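Structure (tokenized):
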């Protein structure tokens, strides 16, 4: 253990500080496709009975009308976060008429690109902007890639904990700058170690053959409709032969918040010739928001993002520039098709210990060589993480995945024990032990368990529908209480009323709104 990590843990262990760990916040966003009884993409509109996808705070759509997204509030107890997520699922299933929530991350058999429905958000300017942005994504990357689903895990440490650490380290920067710097340091360590999450929780070693759309690939055929890699953990997080040339040179620096926001602002403001050739509009119809490397900052695909809750009308980067980093959003987690929610409390507990370790561990600046090694390690694990004897790169030296994983888990253990000591339990230690078992025995990983099912003769679709039906029965067999159902019904109705009010009050034309929105990111922070 390094001196810095030791000092930070000693400070955390003090009774006045240990209790602050109870104020860490957790939020989950879970995406999932709607499918029909045959496992085909549901082409029905987003159910109005679920409310407005534009204004509902907990039930919306991601890329497609068919791609639901469930969002929990951020709360201190991850068990409460998961309980809230479960209630959202139960409500959704009370409204899905003959449809199912697809259980894995990789999509079902998809219709042709033209048929996949882009999400619609009504006639307000902001609703139209969300739609045009998605049209641009289809143009740039294709609709197929946008139908992949995942779990986003939002995590924050309390401001007071950062302030105690800043005082102990005699740091003279502003509280905002210190906190932002520490979150960026967390992200650097996440880049170093996130391959471990893909090994432990990757659950997409196979996919439907139609997903590749006839493009060249290195996948193997498991059956007539299923492609896979024998040692893959998360094909969802691999390149799968798709690469964004526009984003190829866009690697935002995580050495400080300023360079990160500057690089994204530059990408949103820099034309990209192939997109310029297409144009933003044709015959008066919007095709994409602009012809730049990124239409908006969220188009940049990353495994983790620094985040800040935005004010009304404020863009994510504006919030970061004005008020600093408030939490991180982990974006690389697969949906576990064996779990009704796609995630469980054991995974959440481990993520908390892992992220706390990333926050407290030394985090030197990332130089180019290490940056490349981080990317290479991640891609190696998603494609062949269970390969016996797999070697990764650590400090420019080869190291076996098994050895490095075991050493990392040993380093994370004291953080898990701190979390347990605060709560008077051993839940985090047990979560860590469950991961140690996967390192010792790769057959215990979700990716291996998925392949085991498929190798018994189930096609990708048959397995996914088997799990989808099991989950549907789980949620429908325990419906919400009358009080809870009424509350969700009221939220849905209010969201529809809010959207109608927004549309009724709209002023000006969309072109002017879009121009002002795009100019806003280039304005200096207040």
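Design, position by position:
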């Amino acid at each position: 253990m390094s001196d810095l990590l030791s000092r930070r843990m000693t400070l955390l262990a003090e009774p006045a500080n240990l209790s602050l760990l109870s104020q860490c916040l957790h939020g989950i966003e879970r995406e999932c496709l709607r499918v029909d009884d045959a496992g085909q993409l549901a082409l029905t509109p987003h159910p109005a009975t679920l409310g407005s996808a534009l204004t509902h705070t907990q039930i919306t759509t991601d890329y497609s009308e068919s791609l639901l997204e469930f969002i929990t509030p951020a709360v201190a107890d991850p068990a409460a976060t998961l309980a809230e997520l479960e209630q959202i699922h139960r409500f959704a299933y009370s409204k899905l008429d003959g449809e199912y929530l697809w259980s894995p991350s990789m999509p079902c058999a998809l219709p042709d690109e033209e048929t996949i429905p882009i999400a619609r958000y009504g006639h307000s300017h902001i609703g139209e902007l969300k739609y045009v942005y998605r049209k641009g994504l289809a143009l740039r990357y294709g609709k197929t890639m946008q139908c992949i689903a995942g779990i986003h895990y939002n995590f924050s440490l309390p401001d007071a904990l950062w302030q105690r650490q800043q005082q102990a380290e005699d740091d003279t920067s502003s509280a905002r700058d210190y906190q932002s710097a520490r979150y960026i340091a967390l992200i650097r360590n996440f880049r170093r170690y996130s391959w471990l999450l893909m090994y432990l929780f990757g659950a997409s070693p196979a996919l439907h053959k139609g997903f590749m759309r006839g493009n060249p690939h290195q996948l193997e055929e498991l059956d007539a409709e299923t492609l896979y890699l024998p040692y893959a953990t998360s094909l969802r997080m691999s390149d799968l032969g798709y690469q964004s040339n526009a984003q190829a040179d866009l690697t935002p620096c995580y050495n400080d918040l300023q360079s990160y926001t500057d690089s994204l602002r530059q990408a949103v403001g820099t034309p990209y010739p192939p997109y310029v050739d297409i144009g933003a509009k044709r015959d008066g119809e919007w095709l994409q928001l602009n012809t730049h490397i990124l239409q908006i900052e969220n188009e940049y695909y990353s495994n983790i993002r620094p985040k800040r809750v935005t004010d009304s009308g404020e863009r994510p980067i504006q919030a970061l520039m004005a008020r600093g980093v408030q939490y991180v959003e982990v974006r690389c987690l697969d949906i576990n098709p064996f779990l009704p929610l796609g995630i469980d409390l054991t995974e959440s507990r481990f993520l908390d210990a892992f992220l706390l370790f990333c926050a407290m561990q030394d985090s030197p600046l990332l130089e180019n060589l290490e940056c490349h090694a981080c990317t290479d390690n991640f891609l190696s694990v998603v494609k062949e993480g269970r390969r016996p004897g797999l070697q990764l790169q650590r400090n420019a030296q080869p190291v076996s995945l098994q050895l490095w994983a075991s050493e990392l888990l040993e380093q994370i253990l004291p953080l898990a024990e701190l979390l347990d000591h605060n709560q008077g339990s051993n839940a985090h230690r047990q979560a860590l032990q469950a991961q140690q078992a996967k390192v010792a025995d790769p057959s215990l990983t979700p990716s291996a368990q998925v392949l085991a099912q498929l190798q018994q003769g189930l096609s990708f679709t048959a397995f996914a529908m088997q799990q989808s039906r099991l989950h549907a029965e789980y949620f429908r067999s325990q419906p919400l209480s009358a009080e809870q159902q009424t509350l969700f019904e009221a939220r849905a109705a209010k969201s529809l009323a809010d959207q109608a009010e927004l549309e009724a009050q709209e002023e000006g034309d969309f072109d002017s709104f879009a121009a002002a929105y795009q100019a806003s990111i280039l304005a200096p922070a207040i």
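Reviewer-requested clarification: The radius of gyration is 23 Å. Residues 3-109+144-206+298-502 form a domain with the Creatine Kinase; Chain A, domain 2 fold (CATH 3.30.590.20).
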